[in-house]
Known about the structure:
20 strands
Amino acid sequence: MTQNQSNYLNPHGPAASAAGEKEEGGINLGELVAILLEFKWLVLALTLVALLVGVVLIQVSTPIYRADGLLQIEAKTNKKGIAALEGVQSVMPDISSIVAELEILRSRMILGRVVDRLNLTVRAEPRYAPMLGRALARGHSAQELADPILGLGQFAWGGERIVVGSLEFGKERSGGELTLVAGQSGAYKVTNAAGDVLVTGQVGELSKGGSMTMFVNELKARPGTEFVLYASTREAAINALNGQLEVKERARGSGVVELALRDSDPVRASTVLGEILNAYVGQNVEYRSAEAEKTLAFLDSQLPKLKAQMDSAEAAYNRYRQGRGSVDLEHETKTVLDSVVSLEDELLKLQNRRDELRQLFTPEHPQVQAIDSQISRLRGRRSSLDGDVSKLPDTQQTALRLKRDVEVATVLYTDLLNNAQQLRVARAGTVGDVRVIDNAITAAGPVAPRKALIMLVSGVLGLVVGLLTVWIARSLRVTVDDPDRIEKELGLPVFATVPRSKVELNLAKSASTGDGGGKLLAVVDPDDEAVESLRGLRTTLHFALLDSNHRSILITGPTPGVGKSFLSRNLGAVLAHSGKRVVVVDADLRKGHIHKEFGMAREGGVSEFVAGSIAVVDVLRTTVLSGLSIVTTGHIPPNPSELLMHPRFALLLHALEESFDVVIVDAPPVLAVSDAAIIGRHVGATLMVVRSETHPMREMEQAVKRLAQSGVHVKGVVFNDMDMSRQRYRYGYQGYVYSYKYK
Length: 743
């Protein structure tokens, strides 16, 4: 075979082959685009389904509202205030870091107060129908109760409301989920999971039953409507509230803290957050005045004792003066008295200061030791004054002692009383380090579900699932839909690619009903693309038979239903149109049906000639197309393979080759029976017809191998029934079919 002939048998030619080899190492973008366009409706359908799921998810999801508020935590708290109060400012606490304040806001101390004040351990809500029940209830905007759907009166459908003031259990029960069933005129009953009635009651009245006590403030529902009650522990309610709360500093170092709370009830969200703000501010004020409160309590406990001591000292001094007459202290004695009183006052103050420091430091601390040293010096001076007093006359000593007791008691009592008054003023005017800038307000619209984000994610997921489905479908597809794979993997040239023809489909349908006998696509629509591809095959077969001594062509396929009979008939018609004498032999002695397409009888064909009952002239049947004849199968024999191995079958083919330019033999499938291998040894060329998206590559390999084992060489492949309407053949297919028509 010449180089030109070799190139012709490969429709791609050397350039196309090189291009194909080049594409193997990279990504064929055209093929990718083509595959996506081929499966565009599947991808679009999955994307729409995902979007629909997103819409349903938005409808069934409970809206979540967000309430927020602002706090300011001052950087400094010990501000200068009233001069008279500077002495007691030391009892005020130091400032706390912002981080510590954020933790305090989330602490059980704050959230526990909120849970207790708002009774958050009790949760009550209507029971909704599964899936869409809650969404339908939210869509009900009228004041009246919605009518039950499908007679499901136990569920809430819109307008129902319940407010439970309290719900308590005994020690033997810690809570759990209960069911409240509404009755007539505000009556209700509470049942457990087993259906046992735990308590019955009336709205606005305290109800008791066994170890359970509850109070329902409000109940609006049809009789028979069920509500879900749940009484959680205090710790569980605190943890749930902590999970809903968001606390963060607006800007680093700003001291402005933002609080936000998410809840399905907008009113409850703002109420709970407002209570958190109030609880935190109240706690801060309490903490700021806590030490002053403790000191004031101590002073209040000491004042009555000092008052009693002062009264007792005055009474003793007065009795002594009355008993001795008027006793006047000399100037020197008064000086000693004043010194003693002053020392006693200073000693008391130092001792109080030491007690305060001992609450913070150990005795070895320098400040404590410094005060101990001062106390020691004052006590030394006191001892010296006591020595001076002992030198006075007895009358003066006794009077001085009694007068000293009166003066010391009076000074101590007066000082403590003044300090107590100052602390009361300080406590009343204590202002915390924090203040509420913005009160808790709930946003007008819900913050969740985020509809735009859900739709975006749904669309992207749908698209990804669609693309993944396409990829899986393409990966799992084992059938061959690209003739280029046949040339690359089998090493056989594809002589022609026959596109799918709608006209041929209609003709085949008519033939099956008995209305299309004798109609060929090549005759009915000679401009059809399938017919044009057969014209290209006609030219290729001319070169394929140049080096053969036979003018016969065997047309077979791996399996039934590949269109070999269609190809045989119409190829014969195309050859006849070119002026050649052509005969089509139906050698499928098992299921041959070419006679039906031409509206002829089966009898008087191959089986009768091999049996010797008729001559060659008798088996030939002329058709309406000039130059085209056919040979039918004849009667279906019981042993088709043995009949084809008879010498008279080879004689028939030889005789037909003598009378016709081209003999086309339509043989049974290769993998089904051995008939094609028997016939192939007597013809000039063998063509394998394969159908697009029908055969795995392994199946075609087996068909070629089985023919080769019988000594039959397949010249080439005809790729039949390619659906050229698919987008991937426009973008990703290298091109086997070309259309050129006159209109």
